[in-house]
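Because discrete structure vocabularies remain unfamiliar, we turn briefly to a single example record, giving the amino acid sequence and backbone structure tokens:
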Amino acid sequence: MMTYSRLRAIVVTSFGSLLLAACGGDDAPTQPVAPLNGTLAVTVAGLPAGVNAAVTVAGPSSYSQSPTATASYSVAPGSYTVTAAQVISNNVRYNAAIVGSPATVTSSTTTTVTVTYSVATNPTVTLSGSIAANRTLTPDTNYVLRGFVYVNSGATLTINAGTRIVGDTTALGSALFVLRGARIVANGTEAAPVVFTSQRSAGNRSPGDWGGLIIVGNARNNRSGNIIVEGSDGSVLGGNSSGVVYTGGSNDADNSGTLRYVRVEFAGYATLTDAELNSYTFAALGSGTTLEYLQSVSGLDDSFEWFGGTVDGKYLMSYEAGDDHFDTSEGYRGRNQFLIAYQSAYLTPRAGAGAISTDPQGFEVDGCNGGGCVAPAGGNAQSSGAADGLWNMNMFANFTLIGVGAGVTTPTNGGVGMVLRRGTGGYYVNGVVARWPRQAISLRDSTSNNRFQADSLIVRNLYVADNGLQNSGVTFDPTGTNFGQEAAFTARNSNITVAASTVTAASLFTALPAGGTTAPTVAGFDWSPGSGSPIATGGLSSFSADPRIAARAGTFIVPTAYRGAAAPGGTKWWANWTNYARN
């Protein structure tokens, strides 16, 4: 028989077991399992090889990525937004179109967003009136010069490499004037020159499609009174009937800025009769200004013209001028080295823009001409300079001047490689003058001859060939006309080599296109002396024997053992940035 005490123990033990069993069956809360990642694929297309995209990916919890090309990302499920900014490469804009954004990513799946870039049209900005404050032009914008545009005194116009500026062909004579006290800083590069050109398309362009580039400095010249830049008073949109005065300067070290790797194409415009704008007009520029690697292509008037001043230059090119390739006057005292002029035809100007000159030459150098010329003591009104020494005393070294030859009709008084006149002085060394149809050199008047006899007009170590083919083979001034006879140069120890009649201009260079109706390509020019060429030697390789030349050259002009604009086996400095076009 079970006692009460034992029964109580059994009951208590059973209850405890039940209680423990009940407690043991109460499990801990289950933790949620994290969802698996998905994949977000961003596909980028349409950009040139090596160009980075500008894409941004944004998602939950401040997620952010910036892929520059096609990429994939492992991401938590959620909504992701893909955006893309414009990309600019080699002056070309690329806009992006996006498909698939926002993108919903789920576990263990791949969601794709496609970013496709395509070329966008650059915006067009018209330049007109005055630029009164500092301004920068960039290559991702198309600029149109409309009428006369003036950079005012105190302002600097900066033009970045690769920028293209066109002259508005609906406003004839459109031109850029950088006024006295203003500056232009156009720093192109070999790969990305700054280009001023016609608004019309290739194949439809003509000389005279627009006006040109005019820069006015504060250096001295040898004309008195308020003399204006030729053509600056013409009836052109935005023009000033009073014109732009360039005389009266006083600072020969003035700085009007920098032009480096710049092309001016299809410029030149006759705003009035005998008042033409040039491709480049340098009026009273000071020596603080920098001019390097400049080309004029198919201009209507002069390619380069200097009116007084002291600015120096290197690496200047002129292809197909409507008048002179290099024209100086009025007390210009600057120095220039490595110049090329090439004429193969006389191009038809744009209707209404003016006419081809009647006397286009290679060099045309004047002491002074026109009102306000101040005669030196013992001189006359055609003489250059005043008694204080403002003679036209430019220096040109290592120039190559090539004319049209026999097969192209030459304007009445043109076709001379070098015309020196109106009381000019100056030094001309280590040059090549070839294929000029009338003659190579002409010394025109008694006042220039006075400078020649006094050794302030010096011509040394030239090579002349293939000249005078439309004028019975004349190279110098014939006896009895002007003052530039061969005997006169010989008497002044000029050391000019006259090639045999069998030597052609083409034989002097590695590659020289012929003149005539067939237009060459820029690849057809190689101005380096050809194998065995006589111009590879014969240069004035030291200036020490003549202190006048040494003093004028200073450290800017370097003597060379070769003649012409290119060293044998040397750098082809004209390559990559120059152009050739007739229309």
Summary: The chain is about 5% helix and 35% strand.
